[in-house]
């Protein structure tokens, strides 16, 4: 895996971090000695009221942002393509930071479609994605959330005629330091975990690269285009093994499914669901109604992906 | 008053300064406060009734920057432009093996949010380098013994380590190295023994302060020669103590605007004037850059990050000294950059160093010859911050310097006499000064004798002037301001030159060379030059992106009838203007290109309608940064400025296309182009699930954002002549993307399939503008360029130089690989305690490139 060192260090941090958090809780630990010098505080962010998936009300700045390290994105629950990819990727980041979630790091997914996304709908959505503590789904007045998006630079400045035009980028930041950075749903989960858990959090991390030598560097696997696609577009939901993520593990999928069906499912899952294809509907129901997104792949991409999936389950066959 | 249903950054963004503003307000009686408001309203600072997202969102998501503050008004063309101040390169041989008797360590700031005292910092920076530079990052762990300061293997922790622990208790006990360069072999200085350092300089990046005169004695002109001498145009005695120099210069954008707060502006030394490095080929430089920024990252005045990386823009430098975005260093640490100052082709061309055109001034009228290809000679560079995700903010804040390369052909010396022009002058030591001889007088002389001056052997700046042009914005209190949330791009509303708001400069009636750098964040300019009557001056472009062109291109011309070409962020244009031509009144530089937002320019405004006032640059009807921004006041020569000027510098008209060459452009052979590897880089909107304009597709692959641990391309040299590749840079975004490729410059083969305009056809470029909002002159959707990668290896980047786009991850990593190297370097991840190297991944085409593009490409005749 990429960045295995970082994973190890971040995971190794859990105990130290717990200690720090306990110290915080006991009031024994000095707070970050950051004198506030940032113009991006309570005077900048609108203190709008938002309601979470449990019906609890929060003030945006005072309740959600102040003194916290946060990741904020904007979604709507019936969004077919970008939101599931984004949520799935954030979920991987979440997994890397799980022990700190809700303690010093918080994720917020805010609906841009409050009419549809009631707290109950958000609750169901969060359960579909099996989201745990420290990740809150929120809704509020439409005008308020537009104001908020504008303030965060996450309103689509080129105009938003329909919900799917919304800006899918998200923002990570630390209110204490006034440091805010925009990210995209396709960023490496490890990079995001590093940014949230280390750079933004001012945490100690042990260096691992002293006396590094070129001869110690590990050779690279020679990845092909399909592997690249799988890594950047599929792996947030699917593994190549049997274990399920948000979607099914894909070991042997090319043996299990008819190739023509599989090809169409990868290319236009939205249409197949709309047509109520029985297998598609079955998968949708079995996997918590998380929509398989339409990734806008072309025919040759899809063929290459299927060949790749085929080769991973059948070592004797080769991708071509 | 507070609106919550209508986005208005104006109201809220200013509040942190409310306290200060109120304090200032108490200085006035109440009736006067009302008057202050009225003045503010008149000067346009109160635009609060207009929505921010008006047609002109300038300055980006901020209120207009007031020109009247505390009753003082900054009027256009009332402040004198400052000239760049030299860092001053010192002799490296002087310090080898020598440790200061009582070495000073970097002074520590008093608080977590403050920076070292200026006098302490100057004292520290005045000493020689301590500790001595090392090939690999310094991580010595032997205890420092005060009884034996001569030991050079002290335990050299970050001198600020204790303070860092105090400020960040959550870090616990840390061990931070004195040098922030990633440790170990991957970031060791390449070819350190091949290129021993000959010169060095050191500086610290720190907050705005009054210039303490640190470099007053390091100016080559010593304030005693030419226009820098008493009575000259640029003589300065800033504090009026009778001793010339910049001691006492504050960071003010105008004398009537306040000095900048140390949290708002961070510059080299923390001072103005902006800094200039004067470098020579063959004089390998060791540049020690200290980070003296606040330990507390929140102490940034709302923008900028306290970790930094320094990129020498277009330098032919090894990767560890290129300023890789992921190789940054922390407060209290330094980073040693090792810049070999070699001509490209060092390993394969002129390896005996016998070509008289490949050389650099020797301080005595001649040249020291160097290896390499003289046709690769470079001239006007800059270096600036390249911190991952924070480049725009840090560069805007002041982390930018210019760098002039001096060489046999571009020596910065024009002849004082006809005898000198013929190569028969006499050097300071009594030798024949053939290096002063001019190419126009004798074709065997390499020196082009570009306008400069004749008091020094090289690097005369009397008539060779660096201009850093940038748009800025400031708050009600006059403090620099930036909106960090708008990643479409950031525009300021006021133009500055060398940090001064719409300055004036006095010039002699003779030829000048201007080295114009666009140092903006997102503004793409188009500069016209006119006199008071609106007549367009005649002038020549001689350098594009800091490289002398094959020919001098006369302007205005049929391809560009009104002004210079589009000049994007980071592009440099060197021009020669002769002020002895018929001129009515003053001369003005005029920006004629309009933006409405930071995505790219909207249109070119006819010069006539700007000059007549028909175009209203008033925020509502027009872009406030369109219009005149620099006034040049003409003076003759002699003591009273009344005599005619002696000017024996070259005449650029002799070097127009078809006449003499300024340089010969290095060529690629047809065979090399035929067998070149092709790569395509499309600066796009991601088309997978969304349509947002900040991604790059490599070789027809997926639209991706920056990932420092993933290599998109890796040219592999097979021999000393390097690897020739053809890169296709494209955009379909509608937005304009000025693309910058690090390390090696390229030559544009086609723009949208056609021969590029003359100023690109004869040029070597490191900036490739693609995309744009529609029918603008000299823009295209596609650039095909040829590039040769050689001599050094390691990790470089390519990115959009609209730095707000770059920071929003429109950047890719490419590696130059040595012959035989099979895997790219591991990726550094840096913390206070040093580096962790992670495994690097690659895109599938990183070795093969775009094979489809190769098939379709028609090689232009060479």
From TrEMBL, chain A:
Keyword line: Copper, Disulfide bond, Heme, Iron, Metal-binding, Signal
Binding positions for Cu cation per the UniProt entry: 79, 83
Record-annotated Thioredoxin domain positions: 39-169
One example GO MF annotation: heme binding
Signal peptide residue numbers: 1-33
Residue ranges annotated for the Cytochrome c domain, each copy included: 221-313
Similarity comment: family membership: Belongs to the SCO1/2 family.
Descriptive protein name: SCO1/SenC/PrrC protein
Automatic annotation (TrEMBL), chain B:
Keywords (A to Z) from UniProt: Oxidoreductase
Naturally occurring in which organism (per UniProt): Methyloglobulus morosus KoM1
Record InterPro entries: Cu-oxidase_C, Cu-oxidase_fam, Cupredoxin
Protein's UniProt name: Bilirubin oxidase
Keyword Transcription regulation among record annotations: no
Pfam name, any one: Cu-oxidase_2
Record EC number: 1.3.3.5
GO molecular function: bilirubin oxidase activity; copper ion binding
Residues covered by the Plastocyanin-like domain: 713-814
């Amino acid at each position: 895996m990429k960045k295995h060192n970082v994973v190890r260090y971040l995971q190794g941090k859990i105990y130290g971090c717990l200690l720090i958090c306990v110290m915080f809780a006991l009031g024994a630990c000095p707070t970050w000695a950051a004198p506030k010098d940032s113009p991006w505080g309570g005077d900048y962010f609108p203190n709008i009221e938002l309601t979470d998936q449990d019906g609890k009300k929060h003030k945006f700045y005072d309740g959600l942002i102040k003194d916290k390290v946060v990741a904020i994105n904007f979604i709507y629950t019936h969004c077919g393509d970008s939101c599931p990819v984004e949520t799935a990727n954030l979920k991987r980041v979440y997994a890397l930071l799980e022990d700190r979630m809700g303690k010093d790091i918080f994720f917020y997914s805010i609906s841009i479609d409050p009419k549809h996304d009631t707290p109950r709908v958000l609750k169901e959505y969060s359960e579909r994605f099996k989201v745990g503590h420290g990740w809150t789904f929120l809704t509020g007045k439409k005008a308020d959330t537009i104001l908020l998006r504008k303030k965060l630079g996450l309103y689509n400045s080129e105009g938003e005629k329909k919900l799917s035009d919304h800006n899918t980028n998200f923002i990570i930041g630390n209110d204490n330091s006034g440091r805010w950075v925009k990210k995209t749903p396709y960023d490496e989960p490890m990079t995001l975990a590093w940014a949230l858990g280390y750079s933004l959090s001012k945490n100690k991390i042990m260096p691992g690269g002293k006396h590094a030598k070129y001869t110690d560097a590990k050779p690279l696997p020679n990845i092909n285009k399909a592997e690249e696609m799988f890594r950047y577009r599929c792996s947030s939901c699917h593994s190549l093994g049997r274990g399920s993520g948000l979607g099914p593990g894909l070991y042997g999928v090319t043996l299990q499914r008819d190739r023509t069906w599989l090809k169409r499912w990868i290319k236009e899952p939205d249409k197949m669901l709309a047509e109520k294809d029985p297998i598609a509907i079955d998968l949708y129901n079995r996997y918590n109604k998380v929509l398989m997104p339409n990734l806008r792949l072309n025919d040759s991409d899809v063929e290459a992906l299927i060949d790749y999936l085929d080769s991973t389950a059948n070592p004797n066959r080769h991708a071509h | 008053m507070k609106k919550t249903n209508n986005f208005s950054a104006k109201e809220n963004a200013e509040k942190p300064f409310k306290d200060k503003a109120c304090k200032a307000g108490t200085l006035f009686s109440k009736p006067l406060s009302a008057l202050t408001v009225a003045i503010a309203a008149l000067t346009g600072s109160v635009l609060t009734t207009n929505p921010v997202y008006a047609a002109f969102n300038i300055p980006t998501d901020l209120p207009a920057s007031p020109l009247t503050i505390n009753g003082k008004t900054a009027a256009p063309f009332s402040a004198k432009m400052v000239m760049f101040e030299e860092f001053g390169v010192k002799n490296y041989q002087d310090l080898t093996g020598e440790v200061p008797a009582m070495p000073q360590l970097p002074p520590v700031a008093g608080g977590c949010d403050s920076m070292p005292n200026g006098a302490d910092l100057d004292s520290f920076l005045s000493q020689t380098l301590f500790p001595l530079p090392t090939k690999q990052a310094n991580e010595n762990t032997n205890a420092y013994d005060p009884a034996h300061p001569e030991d050079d293997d002290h335990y050299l922790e970050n001198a600020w380590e204790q303070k860092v622990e105090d400020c960040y208790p959550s870090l616990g006990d840390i061990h931070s190295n004195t040098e922030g360069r990633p440790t170990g072999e991957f970031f060791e200085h390449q070819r350190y023994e091949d290129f021993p350092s000959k010169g060095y300089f050191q500086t610290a990046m720190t907050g705005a302060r009054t210039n303490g005169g640190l470099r007053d004695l390091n100016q080559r002109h010593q304030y005693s020669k030419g226009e820098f001498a008493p009575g000259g145009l640029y003589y300065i005695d800033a504090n009026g103590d009778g001793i010339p120099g910049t001691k006492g210069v504050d960071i003010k954008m105008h004398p009537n605007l306040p000095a900048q707060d140390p949290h708002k502006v961070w510059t080299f030394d923390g001072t103005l004037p902006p800094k200039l490095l004067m470098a020579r080929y063959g004089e390998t430089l060791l540049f020690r850059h200290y980070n003296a920024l606040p330990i507390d990252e929140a102490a940034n005045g709302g923008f900028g990050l306290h970790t930094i990386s320094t990129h020498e823009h277009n330098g032919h430098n090894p990767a560890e000294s290129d300023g890789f975005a992921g190789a940054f260093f922390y407060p209290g640490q330094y980073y040693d950059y090792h810049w070999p100052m070699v001509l490209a082709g060092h390993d394969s061309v002129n390896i005996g160093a016998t070509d008289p055109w490949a050389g650099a001034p020797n301080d005595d009228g001649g040249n020291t010859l160097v290896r390499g290809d003289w046709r690769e000679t470079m001239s006007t560079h800059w270096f600036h911050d390249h911190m991952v995700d924070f480049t725009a903010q840090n560069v805007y804040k002041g982390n930018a310097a210019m760098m002039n390369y001096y060489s046999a052909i571009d020596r910065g010396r024009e002849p004082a006499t006809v005898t000198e022009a013929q190569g028969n002058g006499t050097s300071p030591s009594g030798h024949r000064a053939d290096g002063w001889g001019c190419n126009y007088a004798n074709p065997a002389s390499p020196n082009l004798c570009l306008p400069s001056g004749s008091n020094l052997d090289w690097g005369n700046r009397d008539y060779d002037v660096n201009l850093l042009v940038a748009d800025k914005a400031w708050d009600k209190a006059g403090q620099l301001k930036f909106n960090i949330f708008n990643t479409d791009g950031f525009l300021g509303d006021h133009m500055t030159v060398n940090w001064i708001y719409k300055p004036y400069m006095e010039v002699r009636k003779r030829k000048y060379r201007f080295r114009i750098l666009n140092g903006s964040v997102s503004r793409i300019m188009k500069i016209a030059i006119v006199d008071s009557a609106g007549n367009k001056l005649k002038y020549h472009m001689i350098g594009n992106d800091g490289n002398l062109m094959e020919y001098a291109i006369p302007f205005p011309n049929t391809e560009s009838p009104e002004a210079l070409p589009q000049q994007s962020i980071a592009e440099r244009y060197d021009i020669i203007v002769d002020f002895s031509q018929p001129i009515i009144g003053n001369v003005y530089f005029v920006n004629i290109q309009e933006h409405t937002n930071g995505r790219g320019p909207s249109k070119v405004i006819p010069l006539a309608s700007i000059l007549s006032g028909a175009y209203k640059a008033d925020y509502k009807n027009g872009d406030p940064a369109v219009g005149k921004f620099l006034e040049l006041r003409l003076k003759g020569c002699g003591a009273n400025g009344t005599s005619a000027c002696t000017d024996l510098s070259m005449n650029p008209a002799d070097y127009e296309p078809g006449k003499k060459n300024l340089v010969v452009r290095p060529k690629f052979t047809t065979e090399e182009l035929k067998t070149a590897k092709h790569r395509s880089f499309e600066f796009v909107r991601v088309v997978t699930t969304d349509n947002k304009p900040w991604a790059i597709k490599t070789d027809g692959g997926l639209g991706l954002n920056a990932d420092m641990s993933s290599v998109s391309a890796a040219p592999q040299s097979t021999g000393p002549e390097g690897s020739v590749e053809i890169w296709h840079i494209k955009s379909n975004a509608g937005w304009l993307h000025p693309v910058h490729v690090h390390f090696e410059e390229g030559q544009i083969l086609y723009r949208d399939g056609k021969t590029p305009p003359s100023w690109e056809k004869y040029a070597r470029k490191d900036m490739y503008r693609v995309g744009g909002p529609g029918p603008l002159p000299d823009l295209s959707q596609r650039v095909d360029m040829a590039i040769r990668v050689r001599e050094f290896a390691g990790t470089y980047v390519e990115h959009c130089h609209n730095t707000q786009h770059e920071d929003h991850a429109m950047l890719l990593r490419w590696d130059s690989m040595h012959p035989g190297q099979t895997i790219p370097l591991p990726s550094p991840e840096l913390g206070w305690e040093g580096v962790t190297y992670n495994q690097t991944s690659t895109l599938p085409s990183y070795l093969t490139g775009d094979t489809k593009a190769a098939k379709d490409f028609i090689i232009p005749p060479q």
